[in-house]
Amino acid sequence: MSFWPAPHIEVPVHATVTLPGSKSITNRALILAALADGPSTLTGALRSRDTDLMIGALRALGTEITGDAEILEVTPAPLRSAAVDCGLAGTIMRFLPPAAALATGDVAFFGDEQAKLRPLTTILDALRKLGLDVDGDALPFVVHGTGALRGGTVTIDASGSSQFVSGLLLSAARFDEGITVHHDGKPLPSMPHIEMTVEMLRRADVAVQTPADSGNAQTWTVAPGPIRAVDWDIEPDLSNATSFLAAAAVTGGEVSIPMWPRGTTQPGDVIREILVRMGAEARIFDGVLTVHGPQRLAGIDIDLHDVGELTPTVAALAALADSPSRLRGIAHLRGHETDRLAALSAEINRLGGDVTETEDGLEIVPTPLHGGRWHSYADHRMATAGAILGLRVPGVEIEDIGTTAKTLPTFVALWEQMLAPALSGEGVAR
């Protein structure tokens, strides 16, 4: 088992970090392009394990995708029988089964060992109600495609993941009757991701009715019809940006991220508000977001329900703050790549922290931390949270830093490049 010695610095970070495209937007754009009425071009596409698995899956299903870097040409073709490797990617195991229903022949889904624990019954049972024959309730499972799907109205409990709603909406225009999805359950997490899906569908001229349009709470309707080919310009991945901005916050330094969108549906944009509430300064000028870290980082009491993917970053910040924090509304994180609440509490406490897991979140009381091994649980955001802590805590060693390749293969290179000026000076340790 390999452990990466997280860089530790005793001076403020000062850097500009340019990040690749958004995984969430890239994988949505790939599916829409594969189901469109003509060829599409994706510019600025993220190339990572999750997106490369999506590309491989769509190619196996018959879609022609060319281009080896950030510019991809996608030409739709009739979908066919295939075997799909989901890895540990929720955007594949939950977004592709509805599209696979349109294939002629069986589509077998498999993935990493840990992926077998990720909840999928919600999406698979919904597809059965819409007329699809599916064998299995978790990975591995088989979709028996017939080239078409009836569609119609379905009620689901999507409180475990917003991906269940997005997955059904993305392909629904190609269903015979479209779809009406009604959520019945606890509040939906990660609503910005559903808004992202709706916005992208509308850009492809798909008629979508949302709760805000109809006044019908928690109900989305997609009308049947073509999905127009769109040339997609992919925004930088704002969730991946959070760990770099956190570096400024915890060291009292300054980090800038170019090409930060003024308006976006990416949940990562909320990091600006969080950092300001914890004492940092954040401003956008000429498309560049710059964060200035404070001398003392304040704790925070915050509901992260809609932006749960930011929790590992915020937990790391909270562990280094000078007052307690309470992170709420994130019980659904127990079903992510790992049980993130249990993992964060275990790993921060392993370094001497004081983290208590609550029914729907974490309570974090800052205490002096010490070095030690930080386990990543094959979870990219756990790995980056450990890197943030390592900036202030000497001797942190992160298990399997390579898991960051899931969404950011260049993480280590970007992290060390950001720290290069500090690492070349005095008062620095590895």
What does this structure look like?
This protein has 430 residues and is an alpha/beta fold. The protein folds into two domains: 3-20 and 237-419, Alpha-beta prism (UDP-n-acetylglucosamine1-carboxyvinyl-transferase, Chain); 23-222, UDP-n-acetylglucosamine1-carboxyvinyl-transferase, Chain. The protein contains 14 helices and 25 strands.
What global shape is seen?
globular
Tell me the CATH topology of the largest domain: UDP-n-acetylglucosamine1-carboxyvinyl-transferase, Chain
Structural class comes to alpha/beta
Question: Helix coverage percent of residues?
Answer: 25-40%
How would a textbook summarize the main sheet? 4 strands, mixed
CATH class placement of the largest domain: Alpha Beta
Number of continuous helical runs: 14
CATH architecture of the largest domain: Alpha-beta prism
Topology, number of strands: 25
Identify the CATH homologous superfamily of the largest domain.
Enolpyruvate transferase domain
Question: Which residues sit in consecutive blocks of at least 5 with pLDDT less than 50?
Answer: 426-430
Q: Please give the oligomerization state of what you see.
A: single chain
Total of domains: 2
Distance between the termini: 19 Å
| Backbone CA Rg | 21 Å
Report strand order across the widest sheet.
3-16-18-17
What's the overall average pLDDT, rounded? 95
Strand content: 15-25%
